[in-house]
């Protein structure tokens, strides 16, 4: 029987790459999206065509609205019965210094990046007695740079939640985190943007998607790993070179 993964933000970018990767390994995929309905439907159709013996479904939820988040796992259960893997991938990444951060701005960052994962982790643990949770944080959590202040705070909180949940939900539910660095350029920028930033990290190059997928495989295949954080950042968390 195929296992099922729920991936938030699975219609595009890193979420889509993970969904494709897991589908190629025989997983059923619950594809969450918010505004990317067309991309989600097209991607779902592609997966159905490529893997006809697996199940693929799309689910809409605005992660900024807790009442919609609370409906997500029950909706997935209704269509797919069980969830073996929850990947909290979707994020909002918006710049603002502390001094420029309004309450509304902070609420949006915290709702999507922290509160939604909290609700989904809570509901997952209540609904299933075993499984794996993977939370996406950010290499920024080891710094105190404030150019993305609310975003960084939300990801720091998610990492603390990861450790707390790993302790409480173990041994049957494992909870780990992945911290990407220079993976994909922002949609409005090209690869040159990442190449310039990479000049100051230890590996001197962007990582692309492959390190993320390898880290996901490592978490899934190592059944003694919980409460851990894998930095997929080419050493960026160590600090910047001169």
How is this structure best described in words?
This is FolM Alternative dihydrofolate reductase 1. The protein is α/β, with parallel strands linked by helices and 242 residues long. It has a single domain, classed as Rossmann fold, CATH 3.40.50. A seven-stranded parallel β-sheet has the order 3-2-1-4-5-6-7, sandwiched between helices. Helix 4 links the parallel strand 4 and strand 5. The longest helix has 25 residues. The model has no long low-confidence stretch (mean pLDDT 96).
Q: In which range does the helix fraction lie?
A: 40-55%
- Beginning-to-end CA distance, first to last residue: 52 Å
Classify the oligomer: single chain
CATH topology descriptor: Rossmann fold
Spatial strand arrangement across the major sheet? 3-2-1-4-5-6-7
Which second-level CATH architecture applies? 3-Layer(aba) Sandwich
Relative strand content = 15-25%
Main structural class: alpha/beta
- List the domain count as a whole number: 1
CATH class annotation: Alpha Beta
Radius of gyration from the CA trace?
A: 17 Å
The major sheet is characterized as:
7 strands, parallel
CATH superfamily (homologous) name = NAD(P)-binding Rossmann-like Domain
Count of helices?
7
Mean pLDDT: 96
Number of strands: 7
Low-pLDDT segments, ≥5 res: none
- How would you spell out the order of helices and strands? EHEHEHEHEHEHHE
Keywords: Oxidoreductase
InterPro entries: NAD(P)-bd_dom_sf, Sc_DH/Rdtase_CS, SDR_fam
Family: Belongs to the short-chain dehydrogenases/reductases (SDR) family.
GO molecular function: oxidoreductase activity
